[in-house]
Amino acid sequence: MRYVIIRDDDTNALTPVSCLERLYRPFIERGMPVNLAVIPEVATGTCMGSGQPEGFLLPAAGEAAPRRSSEPLQACAVRHERLDKLPMAANQELVGYLLSHPSYRVVQHGSHHDYLEFDQPDGAEIARRLDRGSNALREAGLGQPRTFVAPYDKLSSAALRKVADRFAVLSGGWYELRRLPWSWWPGYALKKARRAVHWKIGDTLLLSHPGCLLSCNRPYPTMLDTIITHLKQHRLTVLVTHWWEYFRDQRADGPFIDMLHETGDYLASQSDLKVVSFADVAEGRVPVD
């Protein structure tokens, strides 16, 4: 049996329910778990390294789109500290929608989703943000998260230690030796020797993914074939996508949405392939390697 985890990043208090509904209704009807990496308390002015506003900050009805900025990243980061943080509890329609559909499984995606917010050495600040994010999800009624996803898949050595102290699963892209705590190096060496995709430190599972195989930046005609090839080569695959990429510039990308649904059709058609949740892995119901 092979397994796949669907991980959709960047759901936040500004995410329209209609977007998730359009994307994942076919998955919900099949009872497939959809793991949403939810930003607990989104910073409403988060910008990328280019100074452009993040794509997941879709405006609410009647509001203007986020202003594009030409300011340097450093200035943007300073300005960002003064921007509003919007907790998930502020959007009761979205929270109610998620709670009414058990196929959605909430995992913690950072705290505010600042640019590289966990790629820093300050362990106390990292711990504060991790705990604040978990508290925000609990206060919204979304439960205690057991899986963590770092914004931009970037964590410092201090952040890795703090995450491992708090979560059963860390879902990342790849793990660089220079970022790992020294005490993790033997485990990393064993992982490399075994050519393992996923590994474990203490009680925390560290899962890797092969990049965003479901992305608007990849060629649509070959996207499903690429996904199928990877699924056939691995026992457990974390399949990452981003809901807002399907609705860029406030317009639905029909062909890309169709590609997501075709992927769901393929997953449902394979008798030796099962869609699972991060919780299934954390609780030992799914073999990791």
Account of the protein in words:
- The protein is α/β, with parallel strands linked by helices.
- The chain has one domain (2-282): TIM Barrel (Alpha-Beta Barrel).
- It is built from 9 helices and 11 strands.
- Strands 1, 2, 5, 6, 7, 8, 9, 10 and 11 form a 9-stranded mixed sheet that branches.
- Helix 1 runs parallel beside helix 8 (254-269).
- The chain starts with a strand and ends in a 7-residue tail after the last helix.
- Mean pLDDT is 90; it is low at 60-82.
Number of strands: 11
Strand content: 15-25%
Poorly predicted residue ranges: 60-82
**What is the CATH level 1 assignment?**
Alpha Beta
- Span between N and C termini? 12 Å
- Number of domain units: 1
CATH architecture: Alpha-Beta Barrel
Mean pLDDT, to the nearest integer, reads 90
List the total number of helices: 9
Overall structural class, as computed from helix and strand content, comes to alpha/beta
Kindly state the percentage of residues in helix: 25-40%
What sort of overall outline do the alpha carbons produce when their principal axes are compared? globular
CATH topology: TIM Barrel
Secondary-structure element sequence?
EHEEHEHEHEHEHEEHEHEH
CATH superfamily: Glycoside hydrolase/deacetylase
Radius of gyration: 18 Å
How many strands, what sense, and barrel or not for the largest sheet? 9 strands, mixed
